[in-house]
Design brief:
The complex is a heterodimer.
Chain A (H helix, E strand, L loop, with lengths): L4 E3 L2 E4 L5 E6 L6 E7 L6 E7 L2 E5 L6 E5 L5 E5 L8 E8 L10 E2 L3 E5 L1
Parallel strand pairs in A: 2-11
Antiparallel strand pairs in A: 1-3, 3-8, 4-5, 4-9, 5-6, 7-8, 9-10, 9-11
Chain B lengths: L2 E3 L3 E5 L4 E8 L3 E9 L6 E6 L3 E5 L2 E6 L4 E6 L8 E11 L2 E6 L3 E6 L1
Parallel strand pairs in B: 2-11
Antiparallel strand pairs in B: 1-3, 3-8, 4-5, 4-9, 6-7, 7-8, 9-10, 9-11
Classes of the chains: A mainly beta, B mainly beta.
Chain lengths: 115, 112
């Protein structure tokens, strides 16, 4: 157990629908990152939150949004789903400040299948 | 911006040694990480370099040359379970804090 919890582990839904993925960071970590990984592709950075505020944005579609709550858990909302949104979605957490060998700790991911 | 390049695929034989190279271009360099990811699973931490030189950890070693923007991951005494994607990631010091950018990963296939 990495300490980063993602739910659900699997999700199957139809095109056009909306889903919410949830992430609880490792205890003490204030930063949360969301990544998308399509089949046989690399990790694509979506968005970063720190202590409730958006800090950095990657290639996140306008149909996608995220937020981080006061208890530091984060949710990624995906709407108007398309077949191409089928992927593994990873959440990672870290301390905010750089330095040291502590990089990211990843959750086990949510596998989204859009049919 | 940042560019991180690593080979897409490599094949090696069980018991052998393999070296996976990573080159990068970035400003504000603040460390290089290697992660391992088995198919369908989360990436897990392998190694970290922030100063030039070699870091050894059991069967795995990682090397960094900051002046050349170059790192490699060396895996010795390969086992079948080493078949996975190895990801090079660069940490950059900016106002986003502890931010890593990942390369596309090198899919390592270990054959008997």
């Amino acid at each position: 157990d990495s300490g980063v919890t993602q739910t659900p582990k699997h999700l199957i839904t139809a095109t056009g629908q909306r889903v919410t993925l949830r992430c609880s960071p490792r205890s003490g970590d204030l930063s949360v990152y969301w990544y998308q990984q399509s089949l046989d592709q690399g990790l694509q950075f979506l968005i970063q939150y720190y202590n409730g505020e958006e800090r950095a944005k990657g290639n996140i579609l306008e149909r996608f949004s995220a937020q981080q709550f006061p208890d530091l858990h984060s949710e990624l909302n995906l709407s108007s789903l398309e077949l191409g949104d089928s992927a593994l979605y990873f959440c990672a957490s870290s301390p905010l400040l750089p330095g040291g060998m502590r990089g990211y700790t990843f959750g086990s991911g949510t596998r989204l299948t859009v049919v | 911006g940042q560019n991180i390049d690593q080979p897409t695929e490599m094949t090696a034989t069980e018991g052998a040694i393999v070296q996976i190279n990573c080159t990068y271009q970035t400003s504000g360099f603040n460390g290089l990480f290697w992660y391992q990811q088995h198919a369908g699973e989360a990436p897990t931490f392998l190694s970290y370099n922030v100063l030039d030189g070699l870091e050894e950890k059991g069967r795995f070693s990682s090397f960094l040359s900051r002046s050349k923007g170059y790192s490699y991951l060396l895996l010795k005494e390969l086992q079948m379970k080493d078949s996975a994607s190895d990801l090079c990631a660069v940490r950059r010091l900016n106002n986003a804090g502890n931010m890593l950018t990942f390369g596309g990963g090198t899919r390592l296939m270990v054959k008997p």
